[in-house]
Each structure stands twice: as C-alpha cells, then as structure tokens.
Write a structure and sequence with these properties.
Number of strands: 17
Radius of gyration: 25 Å
Number of helices: 16
Strand content: 15-25%
Largest sheet: 10 strands, mixed
Oligomer: single chain
C-alpha cells in the first residue's frame, strides 16, 4: 500500500513526526530525501550543468543536499536561493553545501534546473516577480525537476496558487500528494517519480494501481461469470456502447432491455424488446442478473423516470450513469440503493450533492458516505470513493477521452466488472483503470467505439 498511498500535507507531517519520535533525526531524513532525489536526477542528466533553486524551508534544505551530492559526482552545480534558510535542518544542509549561493532573481539559466523552493503545505502563491522568474528559468532549461511539488501548487487540492511552469519530472518525497494526481496541478508535474523515505505511512487514499484480473474458472459458464442487464432508452447509441463495453469486460452475458432491436453490432449481446416501463419488472425478475446498468441514453421523460424507478426497486446490484443521475437529482422520491455505483461528471455531481467546498477527493468521499454508494467522480482526474472512506485516484487518463460516448463505455465496464467481482469499489476501480488503459492504447482523435476494440488487450495485460 505504501507505494500507492496519497497523503495530505498534515498526514505527511504526522508521518515524519512519528519517525522523529521513533528516533529518526530530522536532518537524517532530509539527507535521505535529498540523496534519493539526487539519484533520480543523476540517472536522467548525468554531468550536464545544474542549477538548484532553494527556498527558506525544508524543501530548500533538500535542494542543498541535492546540490552537494551532485557536486560530489562531478556535476557542475550552482545554487540560487530565495531568502535565508530558516529551519535547523535547512541551515545544516546549507552549511554542508559550503559553496556559493546566488540570488535566484539574478541567477543565469542552466541546462538542468531543480525547483526546491516550496513543497508540501504551501498556503499562498509565490510573489508575481518570483513566479515569473521561476517560469523563465524552467522554460529555458532542457530538463527540469520539481522536488516534492512544483512551487506554487496547493498540495491537498491541486489548485495553482500562482503561475506554475510545466516540469519534466516531479519527484514525490515519501508519498504521493493529492496534487500529483488532481488537476490542474497534475498537468504541471510532468513525469511522476516516487522517492521512498522508508517511513511508515497511513492513508485510506491511494493512487489507482493496475488491477490483478483472473481467468474464468475451468467450470465457468455464462451465468457464473456474470449476467449484465442494461436498460436502454430513447438514445440507442449510448446503451449500445455500454452493452458492447460490458460484453468485453469479462462478464459472461449481456442483456439489453430497450424499445428497439438494432441490426448489426455484436451478435453475442441479447436484445430484449421492452416497449414500456410496466413490462420491465418482469424482465428484471431474474435472479441470475449480477449487475444492472441504467442511465446511458435513458432520456428524461416520464417513461424514462418510470424505467428508472423499476430499476431502483429491482434489488439487483446497480450502476447509475448519465440520465439516471439527472433524474435522481431532480426527484426526491427516487432513492439510491446502498452499494450502487454512481458515475457523475462535474455537473451531475453538483446536481446530486451540491457545490461542496473542498478538494475533489474530499467531495467524493463525502458524497459516498452520504449516499452509501461508490462514487466515480469523473473528469480530467477521476476519483473513486467508497462509503467506508477508501479512495483511489486516477489523474493521468488521456485528454482524448473528452469525446461523446466514452462515459457510456466506462459505465458498461463498471457494470461488467461488478457482475464479475460482486464488489462495487473494486469493480469501479478496475473499470476506471481499464478505461484509461484502453485510451492509452488508442491513437489520437479516437472515438468511443475505438475504446471497445482496445479493451480486450487492456484486460489481457492484467491477467
């Protein structure tokens, strides 16, 4: 868990303090952090000239350690500071550097640059002149590294407190921070590399990791592998995309219940013609249904509302997406069953839960606790939250996913994985990861249909 743990600034301070209380000297931990970061920079840049920007706190102290270690390896290193070192450990690191210290505002550029100005816990932005100078130095370098976080980033929510340049690499010290995965900060971080500090870490929030999938049992059949039912509506394309995704998810069978029976498509999908909501209850009276998806292309009229009501009363494990979320948000008589998976984007989330004033992680966790559902809070970063407080964050999905129908594919994947696993949180995490991996396998300017072709390879890679 520790390699995937995401810690807030307060949690990271508590973890470090616990290490100090257990006998680790603060300066020894700074040495460990600086040396580990220096190893990463050395592997990337070797002996190319380097400028290290050091701030007044412990992040700056890490920078002085990096500079000293790189100098020992024969790298031409210069240090430029923003003010005097203020902490005991930072002062010791500066003394150990025992070399010239330039003024950051007048320092000349270098081939490589290290930002060790401000790390975790920054509460206000950099002064405009300092931010502009940092941007100029980073943009003029061939390679750039941020120590822990780019300066100017709010660590817990991922906001940009001032102008922040884009770095080539961000070296996370000890643990991931929310801003490494949450937008807009994540986009400024570049490649993310974790520098372990070998101290105990505790967190219910983790970076979404690749799932470990299993082959069907040797005696498996289509119903033991999981039957997915999908309720269609007026926009047939959405429920068809979701059905196709569910059919490629590892589930054993997919049954689409809608007023239309399309021609073509995947013949393995079962299409049942259900003209009205009053006929839907009979179709759902099948205990073999392991997951039920409602929402993609459902519509917002009275018949759609009635179909949703039947689904909510069916007793089957549920995935609610798109129009289903809008209808639930409008109608107080429609209640979300405990254990359902909800997949809202920003607008749908606000209609359901209001405009909460906190980080995306905290908003998702609060919504999951309030609703009793697993929340897949979609966007440029996606947060999966369970009612018991567990959270997984995917912050690096392709921006090409911002096209029509990709959410329907994700919903179908979630329903399929729910049918396979029976675990809503696990299913949601697997679906988000596989969805993102399928996108990575597609060429630029793909459409939602292209994800379907990439899903088998994404799943095969995790077996």
């Amino acid at each position: 868990m520790s390699k995937d743990a995401i810690l807030t600034a307060a949690q990271m301070r508590a973890a470090e303090q616990a290490a100090f209380d257990a006998g680790v000297e603060p300066y020894a931990l700074m040495e460990r952090a600086g040396r580990t970061a220096a190893d990463i920079i050395w592997r990337a840049g070797h002996r190319r000239d380097l400028l290290v920007l050091c701030g007044p706190g412990n992040n700056g102290g890490d920078g002085f350690v990096i500079a000293r270690v790189m100098r020992e390896r024969g790298v031409p290193v210069r240090v430029a500071a923003l003010g005097e070192s203020r902490t005991d450990s930072a002062q010791r690191a500066k003394a150990a550097w025992n070399g010239p210290v330039e003024d950051m505002m007048t320092a000349a550029p270098a081939t490589q640059i290290v930002d060790a100005l401000f790390g975790t816990g920054l509460s206000r932005g950099l002064d405009e002149a300092v931010a502009d100078r940092l941007c100029a130095l980073v943009n003029s370098a061939a390679a750039s590294y941020a120590v822990d976080l780019p300066s100017g980033v709010e660590s817990d929510g991922g906001a940009l407190l001032s102008t922040v340049p884009s770095f080539g690499v961000t070296i996370a010290l000890g643990a991931w921070k929310p801003a490494h995965l949450l937008q807009p900060a994540s986009e400024r971080c570049g490649r993310l590399i974790l520098a372990p500090l070998d101290i105990p870490l505790t967190s219910d929030v983790r970076r979404l990791s690749a799932p470990h999938l299993t082959m069907p049992a040797v005696d498996a059949h289509k119903y033991s592998r999981g039957l997915v039912a999908i309720i269609g509506g007026g926009m047939a394309g959405a429920s068809l995309l979701a059905s196709e995704a569910a059919a490629r998810s590892g589930a054993g069978a997919v049954r689409r219940l809608a007023a239309d029976i399309p021609g073509g498509g995947t013949h393995a999908i079962i299409h049942r013609k259900v003209m009205h909501a009053d006929a839907l209850a009979g179709e759902l009276d099948d205990q073999r249904i392991a997951a039920l998806l409602v929402g993609p292309g459902l519509g917002l009229d009275a018949d759609a509302r009635a179909r949703l009501g039947v689904a909510l009363d069916s007793g089957h494990p549920l995935v609610l997406d798109a129009d289903a979320l809008t209808l639930v948000g409008k109608d107080d008589t429609l209640s979300i069953p405990s254990g359902a998976i909800l997949t809202p984007h920003e607008g749908e989330f606000e209609r359901l839960f209001g405009k909460l004033q906190s980080s995306k992680i905290d908003r998702a966790r609060a919504a999951a606790k309030a609703s009793g559902a697993v929340i897949v809070y979609k966007g440029a970063d996606s947060v999966v939250a369970a009612p018991d407080g567990r959270v997984a964050v995917e912050g690096r999905a392709s921006s090409w996913l911002s096209t029509a129908g990709t959410g329907d594919v994700l919903a179908g994947l979630a329903a399929g994985r729910l049918a396979v696993t029976g675990d809503p949180f696990r299913a949601a995490c697997e679906a988000v990861w596989l969805h993102a991996d399928a996108a990575r396998r597609c060429r630029p300017a793909f459409v939602a249909d292209d994800l379907l072709d990439a899903l088998p390879a994404a799943i095969a890679a995790r077996l």
